[in-house]
Every structure is written in structure tokens, then in C-alpha cells.
Design a protein that fits this description.
This protein is an alpha+beta fold. It has 2 domains: 30-194, no CATH class; 205-347, no CATH class. It has 7 helices and 21 strands. Helix 6 packs antiparallel against helix 7.
Length: 349
């Protein structure tokens, strides 16, 4: 290949990279009737916040990364209901939940990307005071605030009126009103339910070939091999006897691996009264490369004050965390039995 051909090939490759970059930066072309309510690229988008000033509740999405790669962070406002008076016999227990930063799930990523750019199904222009009142856009305390390159753009937002499906937003900068997709408001309103990642693993069990389990100073290693094509999952066998599958260990581990948190705590948040005490740690690898880890822990116990008459009671709550979670998660009650079974498993010869 001569110098001219090399130059041509290099130019074509560069043009392809530039085209790919701008394709990634911009969403596909607008559909019929669509307009940009806020024209911003993915690279410029920093945060998206939904808030309700009336109930002092908000949720904010932002881009980030950790050891697993790129992610969408979800920051949630705290809740303090300890001062609320409920009728006698009311089943609700007043709680206090701090502000939390948690990993967002795939829905959080899709919602965040929907704002780069923010598309509207219709543009209604600047409406008169009567129409704004009819829609509730004149008094609403709900809003969406988008930050791009340090600049904030705020939109008042209201649910769809009777007979409608999609919410209305009003740009605080120029007063223009738009109709946007319904899921943007519903997902952001219920961010603590819809947008929080509850998976504890980013890999499949079929990707694992070795598991190390540690508890109470003891360790055991198990070899994982795939089942036949007709069966999902893997077989587990002790490292010292790889040709003798251990069904008891497999059944126990299947339940542990598939644990689903009942509550996701924030990054660096410790549940009261003290840090959980790790009881079991599992480490996963494939072909000598670490895939991830998981820990099961019992609730910590606060140090009793000298003047305390009764000793502190041990909480029965169980917590878990992993390389994929942003912090601790509260696990269902049956996780306590899994810890006891795991400790027994490691004592077996």
C-alpha cells in the first residue's frame, strides 16, 4: 500500500470516528410532531432533578462511575416522619430515612438519557393565564431541573389533565409549554422504587468457575461447572473433590446468590445502632480473574452506657453488600437462616 492509499484510509477512519462520536452525542432525528424542549447533548448533561416543594421531596440523577464502570447515580431526599402523630393503633411506625446516594438501575439510565436532549411530543407555545390556571401550571410546586455545563434549566410540571395521558411542563426561562412522555414524570416521582438498583451482582452464575467462602476464620473453595445445555445454573464441588458435586452447598449458594434486598441503603451509610458485623464473605472468580464479592452481616450492637440497666438487645436484622452495590442493603428475614447454614457448611469436612 502506497503513502497516498494510507493517507486516504486514515482519513476515512478518522471521518468514521467523528461520525460515530456525533451519532452518540445526538439522539435519532425527531419523530413527526416532536420538538426539543431542551436541546442538550449527552456529554453536556450533568444532573436531572425532580422535586416537589410542597412535600419537600426530590430525586436527582447524575452520571458517574465505579470499579464496575459507568453508572447512573440516584440521590434521594430523606424522610423524617418521627414527629407525625398517628391515631392509636395505626400500623405505621414513624421512621426517619436520611438522604441517600444509591446506584441507579437500567431504568434510571434510560430516564437520564431521555434528557439529552429533552424531547416533547408537542409544543404549545406561551399560554395565557387562564389556560395555565386550568392546567395547574400557575401554582404547581412540582418541577424538573436540568443542569448542563453548569447551566440550570427549570421546568414546572403537572400530571396530565382529565382525559389526557402525558404531563405538561412549562419552561421557567421563556414560559413556553410542552407535553412530554408520561414515564419521565412517573419514574422520577417514584425514583426510590423504580430507579434504584437492587441487584447484588453484575455477572451471571454461569460466568463463575470458582467460589471461595469464608466465615468464622474458616475457608472453603468450590469449583463451579456449567450444567448440561438443557439445565440452567452450575454444579458446585469442593476443590479437593472436583468430581463429587455437593448438592447441599449448591442449594444453599443458589439462595444466597439470588437474595433480593428489602431496602437499599445509601453509599457510606451505616444502619443504626452500629456497623454490621460481617459473618460470611463470598468471592467469585473466573479463570483466575476476580469477578466480584458478596458479604452477609448481622446487625451491629451499640456499646452499652455505664448507666444502662438493661443490656442492649441484639437486632435480628441481616444486611448484605457486594462489589456491585453502592453500600449496605437490608435483606429479608430468612437471610438469618442462610448465615447459620453457611457457617455449618464451612464446619463440614
Amino acid at each position: 500500500m502506497n503513502a497516498r492509499a494510507v493517507t486516504v484510509q486514515g482519513g476515512l477512519a478518522l471521518a468514521g470516528l467523528v461520525a460515530a462520536y456525533f451519532t452518540w452525542q445526538r439522539q435519532p432525528e425527531l419523530a413527526a410532531g416532536e420538538v426539543f424542549a431542551f436541546d442538550v447533548t449527552r456529554n453536556d448533561l450533568e444532573t436531572v432533578r425532580y422535586g416537589d416543594d410542597e412535600v419537600k421531596n426530590w430525586a436527582e440523577l447524575s452520571r458517574g462511575k465505579d470499579s464496575n464502570g459507568a453508572l447512573t447515580w440516584v440521590r434521594l431526599s430523606g424522610v423524617d416522619a418521627t414527629a407525625v402523630a398517628f391515631p392509636s393503633g395505626h400500623p405505621y411506625v414513624p421512621t426517619k430515612v436520611p438522604e441517600r446516594l444509591v446506584r441507579g438501575n437500567e431504568s434510571a439510565e434510560r430516564v437520564f438519557e431521555s434528557f439529552a436532549p429533552l424531547r416533547a411530543t408537542r409544543a404549545l407555545g406561551v399560554l395565557d393565564a387562564g389556560l395555565l390556571k386550568d392546567l395547574g401550571l400557575d401554582v404547581t410546586k412540582k418541577f424538573i431541573e436540568v443542569t448542563a455545563r453548569g447551566n440550570k434549566r427549570r421546568f414546572a410540571i403537572v400530571p396530565a389533565p382529565p382525559g389526557g395521558n402525558d404531563p405538561y411542563i412549562r419552561d421557567a426561562a421563556d414560559g413556553r409549554v410542552y407535553i412530554i412522555a408520561r414515564h419521565l414524570m412517573s419514574d422520577l416521582q417514584a425514583a426510590s422504587i423504580n430507579l434504584v438498583e437492587r441487584r447484588l451482582h453484575s455477572f451471571r452464575m454461569e460466568d463463575v468457575d470458582r467460589i471461595e467462602i469464608a466465615a468464622a476464620g474458616k475457608k472453603r473453595e468450590f469449583i463451579a461447572t456449567r450444567n448440561d445445555d438443557s439445565l440452567p445454573g452450575v454444579r458446585l464441588a469442593p476443590r479437593e473433590a472436583p468430581d463429587k458435586p455437593d448438592q447441599t452447598a449448591k442449594n444453599w449458594h443458589d439462595r444466597v446468590f439470588n437474595l433480593f434486598p428489602s431496602e437499599v441503603l445509601g453509599k457510606d451509610e451505616l444502619p443504626p445502632p452500629a456497623a454490621p458485623v460481617v459473618a460470611i464473605r463470598l468471592a467469585y472468580s473466573s479463570r483466575g480473574r476476580a469477578l466480584g464479592w458478596m458479604e452477609l452481616a448481622r446487625a451491629g450492637t451499640a456499646t452499652a452506657a455505664v448507666s444502662t440497666v438493661d443490656p442492649p438487645q441484639q437486632s435480628s436484622e441481616i444486611f448484605g453488600r457486594s462489589d456491585f452495590s453502592a453500600g449496605w442493603t437490608k435483606l429479608p428475614a430468612d437471610a438469618a437462616a442462610l448465615i447459620s447454614e453457611g457457617e455449618t457448611l464451612l464446619r463440614r469436612k
